Structures are given as C-alpha cells and as structure tokens.
C-alpha cells in the first residue's frame, strides 16, 4: 500500500487490514512515498517523519511492515517503480496494490499504467465521498485478467491526512483519528504547527 502517510491514519490501517483479510495476504507492506509527484507544489512533511509515523502505526501488527524503497530512491515516486522494487524483493509473491477509490479513479494518468497491471493486482477500497466505480477502466482493461482490479467495500472512515493536518495546525485533537503513538509523535515533533520554533539544546 503506497501513500504519503502525512500522517498515517485509521482509514489507511482499516483498508490494509480489510484487504489482508479478504485476500488472505501474508503481509501488507506500507510504502511511504519519497517525493509524491501528485503533490508537488504542496508542502509535504519530511520523509523520515512520515516513515517513522508509519512504523509506529504498524508496529503492533505482525502482518504489517514498512518499506523505505520509495524514500530511499530519492526521486519522484511513481507506483510503477515501487512495484518493480517489490517484485525484485519478493520474486515469487503474488503482489496486490491497495488503493482508495479516489486514487484508483485516476490510475490511467499514472506513469506506465499498463505495466502496473502486469506487476500487481489492484484492489480499490471504498472511501467516503468518492465513488467506487471502475466502469471507465473496463475498456482499458479488456486485455487483462478479470481480477486485474477488484473493488471492495470496507467500513467507512471519513478520515483524511489533510483533515488531520488541518486539525493539528489549529490545535484541535487528532486523537482516535490516528493511532495514539502517532498523536504523540506529531506533538513531539511539532508537525503541522504553522511556525514551530521551539528552543533546542543538544
Ligand atoms: P491527503 O489528504 O494528504 O491526500 P490521504 O488521507 O488521502 O491524504 P494518502 O496518503 O494520500 O492519504 O493515501 C494513501 C492511500 O490510502 C490512497 O490510496 C488513498 O485513497 C487511501 N486512503 C486514504 N484514506 C482513506 C480512507 N479513509 N478510506 C479508504 N482509503 C483511504
Ligand atoms: Mg490522498
């Protein structure tokens, strides 16, 4: 599952858990983006902060892990590169790429989109406020197996990282929207605070 994870929240975790259960996956690898191409121009938190929040959020689940592949590539992140790296790392695995309905809706604009479906099966999960519809993809996927893209309904959590950032920047709570350790990490690192200028010794 790729994402900016700025910050990771319970919507991401429920999506991963649901897909793992439905497809009987051995492992879900969370891959925080390096430089997210779709978010260029927007300010994104430091990769190490997003990576550490993802580690904190997933640490208690033995089937969840975090990959640094996109962060360490040091270039703009394209999912096709993520999947090529995962394929190299797990040569014999059946790969599934988990994505929310909003992200899946514009998959045809992703770099080398046709190769994506050769590298992995795609699972689109429902997300409040976005339509779970792949009719527009059907024509383009005619030459691919029927399970190239599967859509599944998951418990609706109307949580987004943008809203978590907005809340944190306004001093409003993010408790219960993100895991407890992530709440504490955000506060400890003064993430999303407009002018964080604490005094540091050391
Ligand atoms: P932002 O508001 O900054 O775009 P986000 O909440 O959309 O953040 P991303 O890191 O952009 O989080 O998303 C990573 C993946 O998780 C995407 O495929 C996205 O569609 C999916 N996703 C995010 N939030 C949810 C949610 N509440 N329910 C289902 N899928 C989600
Ligand atoms: Mg998003």
3D architecture notes:
There is one protein chain. With 202 residues, this protein is of the alpha/beta class. It has a single domain (2-160), classed as 3-Layer(aba) Sandwich (Rossmann fold). It has nine helices and eight strands. Strands 1-2-4 form a three-stranded parallel sheet. Strands 6-7-8 form a three-stranded parallel sheet. Strands 3-5 form a two-stranded parallel sheet. α7 links the parallel β7 (121-125) and β8 (149-152). The radius of gyration is 17 Å and the shape is globular. The protein starts with a strand and ends in a 14-residue tail after the last helix. The relative contact order is 0.18. Adenosine-5'-triphosphate is lined by residues 3-6, 11-12, 15, 99-100, 102-103, 125, 127, 157, 159-162.
Layout of helices and strands:
Blueprint: E1 2-3, H1 10-22, E2 28-32, E3 35-36, H2 47-58, E4 64-66, H3 69-73, E5 76-77, H4 79-89, E6 96-100, H5 101-104, H6 113-119, E7 121-125, H7 135-138, E8 149-152, H8 161-169, H9 180-188
Parallel strand pairs: 1-2, 2-4, 3-5, 6-7, 7-8
Bound molecules: adenosine-5'-triphosphate and magnesium ion.
Helical content band? 25-40%
Kindly identify the CATH topology: Rossmann fold
Q: Which architecture per CATH?
A: 3-Layer(aba) Sandwich
Task: Compute the separation of the termini in Å.
Answer: 37 Å
- H-E string: EHEEHEHEHEHHEHEHH
Bound molecules: adenosine-5'-triphosphate, magnesium ion
CATH class: Alpha Beta
The strand order across the widest sheet is 1-2-4
The radius of gyration is 17 Å
CATH superfamily: HUPs
Family: Belongs to the NadD family.
Pfam family, one: CTP_transf_like
Catalytic activity: nicotinate beta-D-ribonucleotide + ATP + H(+) = deamido-NAD(+) + diphosphate
GO molecular function: ATP binding; nicotinate-nucleotide adenylyltransferase activity
